[in-house]
Amino acid sequence: MSHVGDEELRQLQEFIEELRGHFIVFDSSRVRDVEYARERLVPDYQKDLVIDMDPFFEKYRSIKPFFITYEPDPPVERFQSQEDRAKIDDSTKCILCGACTGSCPSFWGNKEYVGPAAIVQAHRFIFDSRDQGANERLEILNDRDGVWRCRTVFNCVDACPREIDVTRAIGEVKKLLLFNRMA
C-alpha cells in the first residue's frame, strides 16, 4: 500500500470539499493510504445511503396485506375478542423496516423467497378472526419460496427492533398449512 503524497492529498481534499454537502464528513488529515481513501470516497457513494425497497414491498403486497371479507360491511365495526386479538398481537407490531428480511440467510441465498416480513404480515391477517382471506394467503405461502424456505435460523428474531417472535409466526403458518387449513 502506498502513502498519500502532497498532490494526492490535495486532490482528496478537493474531492472532500465537493462532497461536503452530501452528508459525508471525512478528516483528510487521517488519510494514510490512497486505496483506503479511494474505497471510502468513490463517486457512487450514494449506494450506501439509499436502499431499493421495491422488491421488499413487492413481496409484501404479494401476500395481500389487507382485510378480505366476502360479506357486506356490518352497520358497526367488526369486533374482536381479547383472545382473538392476542393471537395477532405480536405480528401487528411489525413496522416493515425489513431488518428481519435483511438478516435472513434463506433470503440471501434466494431472492425469490417471500421473506420473514411478508410472512409476519400474512400471519397478522391469517389469524385475524375478522378476515376471510386466510386460504388465499395460505395458497400464496404454501410454496417452495413461501414459508417452506425458512430454515428457522432465528436471525430475524434477533434483528427485529420490535422484538417480534418472527419464527414463531412462521411456524404457526406452517402448522396451519400442515394440519388444519382454514375451512
Please provide a written account of the structure:
The chain has about 180 residues and is mostly helical. The protein has two domains: about 5-50; about 55-180, Fumarate Reductase Iron-sulfur Protein, Chain B, domain 2 (Orthogonal Bundle), CATH 1.10.1060.10. About 45% of the residues lie in helices and about 0% in strands. The chain is built from ten helices and no strands. The protein has helices spanning about 5-20, 35-40, 55-60, 80-90, 100, 105-110, 115-125, 135-140, 155-160, 165-180. Helix 3 (about 55-60) runs parallel beside helix 7. The model is unreliable at about 20-30 and about 40-45 (pLDDT under 50).
Give the biggest sheet.
none
Under CATH, the topology of the largest domain is which? Fumarate Reductase Iron-sulfur Protein, Chain B, domain 2
Number of domains: 2
Q: What is the CATH homology-level superfamily of the largest domain?
A: Alpha-helical ferredoxin
- CATH architecture annotation name of the largest domain: Orthogonal Bundle
> Helix count?
10
Q: Can you identify the CATH class of the largest domain? A: Mainly Alpha
Structural class: mainly alpha
Distance between the termini: 67 Å
Sketch the topology as an H/E string, one letter per element: HHHHHHHHHH
Please state roughly what percent of the residues sit in beta strands, choosing from under 5%, 5-15%, 15-25%, 25-35%, 35-45% or over 45%: under 5%
- What general outline do the C-alpha atoms trace? elongated
Fraction of residues in helix: 40-55%
Rg over alpha carbons: 24 Å
Uncertain segments? 22-28, 42-47
User: For the residues shown, what is the average pLDDT?
Assistant: 84
